[in-house]
Amino acid sequence: SVSPMAALACASNVRSLLLHPGDGAPARSFYSQPYQPKVGVVEFLNGVGKGVETHAAKLEEAVGGDLQRLLETRTLRLKKLGVPCKHRKLILSFAHKYRLGLWKPWAEARKVQ
């Protein structure tokens, strides 16, 4: 059985770790490249990569250069614009991540291997 004093000490240790995680260590130091400062339709599609950027001109014209309209675009509209299934899936997936704040395009295009 754990004594009440030991349990209290353990709880305070956990609390200090939760309140001050990794003091002294830079947060997310493994990111070497900065994020794109202003994201437009072309930057977004270049950030997705994997061949999606080939549709940049067509999509930018369709949404009027407004990234917000691209983020709200549904699969049927992309299909009518002639975007293949795999690319539609990538665009919609990354648009969802971008809206939630889980993903942003890099400032420099990453090398695809």
3D architecture notes:
By secondary structure, the protein is mainly alpha-helical. It has a domain at 41-100. The protein is built from 6 helices and no strands. The chain has helices at 4-19, 41-48, 56-63, 67-72, 75-80, 85-100. α2 (41-48) packs antiparallel against α3 (56-63). The termini are far apart. InterPro entries: SAM_Ribosomal_mS41 (IPR019083). This is Small ribosomal subunit protein mS41 SAM domain-containing protein. Residues 41-101 form the Small ribosomal subunit protein mS41 SAM domain.
Topology overview:
Elements: H1 4-19, H2 41-48, H3 56-63, H4 67-72, H5 75-80, H6 85-100
Helix pairs in contact: 2-3
Attribute tags:
single chain, 113 residues, mainly alpha, 53% helix
Q: Could you provide a short overview of the structure?
A:
The protein is built from 6 helices and no strands. The protein is mainly alpha-helical and 113 residues long. The protein has a domain at 41-100.
